[in-house]
Each structure stands twice: as C-alpha cells, then as structure tokens.
Design brief:
Length: 433
C-alpha cells in the first residue's frame, strides 16, 4: 500500500515523497527581487519536508500574464535569474517544477487598465469570442492566432522548458487548465478552429502533442514535462470538455510522452471553481484591495463582471473536501503515468486514503501553504490538527491585483497568533495524532 513517505518516479525525476505544493501565485513579479520572493515562500516548505513544489504559473510571452505579480519567463535571462529558487528547494531535499502558460483572452492586458492602455499588441484568442462573453470584451482588440503563431507559441514552450532546465528546475508543467490559453485550445467552448488545432478532441489537443515534442527537442527528452487536464463546467447548453474526454486526453498525453497528469474540474470561465470555497468579500471590504481594484478596472461594468465571477463561483461551488476525487480516481484507472490529485485536500487522513486506495500517485495542497509554510511537517507527521486555511478565497483578488501571495483572512491571522501563544505556553501543536 502506498504511503505519503514513499518516493515517486516522475519520468527521470525521483521525488522524495508524495506530497506536493500545488501551484499558487506568490506575486513575485519579474523585478530584481523575484527570486528572493520565491525562495522566501518555498525554502520553508522544502525544509518542512514537502516532496515537490510546483511554482505558480509564469508567462511565456511579454504580454499575456493574468495578473501583474505573475513572473515573466519570456527570455533566457529572466529564467536564469530564478536560479536561486531551485537551489533553495534542493538544499532542503525537495524538487521543483516551473509552471508556464499564457492567459489568452483573460490576459490582464484585456482588463487591467494600466496594462491595457499600454499593451503593444492585441489580445490573443483561439477563435472569435463565444457570444456569451462578448459584452465583457467591448473595446478590447482580439486577435485570433494564426496557425503559424500557434507553432511559434509551441516553440516558445520548448525554449522556456530548456531555460528552466538550465536554471536548475527539475521539470516543467503546462498551465493548461483554469480557462488559460491552452485550456482555451482544449475547450470546445472557445475553440472553433478549422485548422490542425480545432475540431475533434485529438485536434483540439494537438497543441499539447506539439508542445511535448518541442520540450523534448529543446530541453531534452528526459526533462519531465507535466500537464493539467481540465474537465469543464459551463453555462447550460454550451459546449465543454467532459470528464470522459479528460480520461481520453490523459491517455493521449501518456502516448505523447507526458510524465504525469493533473485532472481538475473547473469552469470554462475564470472564476473560483478552481479554488472552491467562499466569496472573497475582501474585494469590497479591504481598503488596500478596493483601491487597487478601482485603479485596475475603472469601469463599473468591468468591475461588476469581475466581481460576478467571484460571487457566482463561490455561491455555485462552495468548498467540498477533495472535490476532484471522482476525476483523478477515474483517470488513475486508465493511465500508467503518475496522476496528481489536487483540490480541497486538507488532512493527513485524506492524503493517506487517496494514496492507500491507489486513487492518485501524488497529492497536492494549495491555499493552506499561504498561512502555513511548514504545513508538510504536520501532514507528513500524520497530525490531526486542522489546517488554518478557511477556504475563504481572500487570497484570490489580491493575486489578481498584483499583491503578494499570502493569507489575507483576518480570522486566520488571529488563529495563527493564538496557536503560537499556546505553543509558547508549552503545548505541542502539530504532533502526530
Ligand atoms: C491565489 C491562487 C492562485 C493560483 N494559481 C495557480 C497557478 O498559477 N497555476 C495553477 O495551475 N493553479 C493555480 N491555482 C489553483 C491551485 O493550484 C489549486 O488547484 C486550487 O487552489 C485548489 O487546491 P486547494 O484547495 O488545496 O487550494 C491557484 C489558486 C489560487 C487560490
């Protein structure tokens, strides 16, 4: 029976155990202190025993980030400057992947005023916009990518992977879910192309096949390359990628040489279905956040659209423990490569049952790391003390607005202080129970 302490082989990489930090943004940006911000976030995770860190998504082109704090990896120089990050994780025995992607129509140049007013080109789209969302893009110049441009993007993915390897990362993951550009290719909600990249599931996923080959060619066939696979929720009577398609896609990805898959159920729209939980009310309650929000989206209409995404996401998809279980469990029965679990996993017991029942090979936790960098110690130790994270999603809007990736929930801060006081008074929170 697999337990969390068992090492796992992912292609040519062996990670020391089955616990990974799921990719969440750190707001590290691309300035001179970007590497330092990542080191500050990840070194304590590695020191606390996490097997693998997947760094939150970075952007492959100069434009296309979904938030100002997202790191650019569009040049070799920029990626090499991140070298201290893998070094710090390796120092403590952990492994780290670089995740990279592009926002497509949800790039901040489409809606974040200071960036929109200075954008150098139009917003990249897979196809003309679905009718349902057109109103939100009035005045936004949309450009449907030509076949050649898609091939150029494929090349760039390979280059970024090669630079990541040179910088010391242990592998590469595609930011291919969460309504981002690659998801827009995979999804029949967005993809209406008639060239080699549109049509059947195989054709919509053709871009993944080419990217895998590009990564192998440029970074080396042994450089691990992982992919996220979205099963989609969508408004009634609109097309979406189904769970059944994700199983087929996982099999194709295995055939194409991907080293692991992460199946996730997300909305076709960029809302909080990807991080199920509360409605992040800090967006209209916290002064620092509201001020940034008004500056980013001066138009009331645009602010209303963005807010609606959070409110609807939170109302329609509240927190449910281990909400992707049905999906990763199903995929696991169809592929031989490692399957990564993520989404609402909070306890050592949940981790043990996912691994023990052979439902996935690697178990990821995301938001709780913001408040508890040393969480791995407790999960690996079998602690029954609940995580501090309340799944309130207070961490989400600040990310969108370029603030640091930390916990913004005041109740969590209070609870953390209370636990620290109790610990100082002689109790031993976090011991195995
Ligand atoms: C603020 C924030 C940023 C995120 N950034 C990314 C990202 O860059 N790439 C990605 O694949 N998923 C991203 N996610 C999704 C997480 O990886 C994870 O799937 C999700 O939070 C559910 O796991 P959890 O319940 O353990 O938090 C993000 C989620 C949040 C809340």
């Amino acid at each position: 029976m697999t337990v969390v302490h068992d090492p796992l082989r992912i292609g040519s990489l062996t990670v020391r155990n089955r616990l990974y930090r799921a990719p969440v943004l750190e707001g590290a940006g691309s300035g001179p202190d970007a590497a330092e911000a990542y080191v500050k976030a990840f070194a304590p995770n590695a020191k606390a025993g996490v097997g693998l860190v997947i760094q939150g998504s970075a952007c492959i082109f100069e434009e296309g980030r979904t938030s100002p704090g997202m790191t650019l990896v569009n040049t070799r120089q920029r990626v090499l400057e991140l070298r201290p990050v893998p070094d710090a994780v390796h120092l403590h025995g952990g492994s780290i992947l670089l995740q990279a992607g592009h926002g497509g129509i949800y790039s901040m140049e489409a809606w974040h005023e200071p960036y929109a007013s200075q954008r150098s080109g139009p917003i990249l789209a897979v196809s003309p916009l679905p009718r349902l969302i057109r109103a939100a893009f009035i005045g936004v110049p949309i450009h449907v990518m030509t076949t050649d441009e898609v091939h150029a993007m494929v090349t760039r993915y390979g280059e970024v992977a090669a630079w990541a390897r040179e910088a010391g990362y242990d592998g590469f993951q595609l930011a291919s879910a969460n309504a981002k550009l690659l998801d827009q290719f995979l999804s029949p909600f967005y993809n209406k192309r008639t060239d080699e990249f549109g049509g059947s599931l195989e054709k919509r996923a053709h871009v993944l096949r080419l990217i895998r080959a590009s990564v192998a060619e440029r970074a080396g066939a042994d450089f691990p390359c992982l992919v996220k696979l979205p099963a989609e929720k969508a408004p009634p009577f609109t097309p979406r990628s189904t769970a059944e398609e994700v199983v087929r896609l996982a099999k194709l990805c295995e055939e194409w040489g991907y080293d692991a898959v992460t199946p996730v159920e997300v909305s076709v729209l960029p809302d909080t279905t990807l991080s199920r939980g509360g409605v992040p009310a800090q967006l209209w309650r916290n002064n620092a956040i509201t001020t940034r929000f008004r500056a980013a989206a001066p138009s009331r209409f645009r602010r209303a659209v963005l807010t609606a995404g959070y409110v609807l996401g939170g109302k329609q998809h509240p927190f449910t423990p281990v909400w992707n279980r049905h999906l990763f469990r199903e995929v696991k029965t169809h592929v031989g490569i490692p399957v990564f679990a993520v989404g609402g996993i909070r306890t050592a017991d949940e981790v043990a049952s996912i691994l023990g029942n052979d439902e996935a090979d690697m178990v990821g936790i995301g938001r709780p790391f913001y408040a508890e960098p040393d969480l791995p110690q407790r999960i690996l130790g079998g602690s029954r003390e609940p995580v501090l994270c309340r799944n309130s999603n207070h961490c989400v809007p600040p990310q969108m607005l370029g603030m640091k990736g930390v916990c913004y929930n005041p109740d969590v801060k209070k609870e953390k202080a209370a636990r620290a006081t109790t610990a100082g008074a002689g109790a031993t929170p976090g011991t195995p129970g």
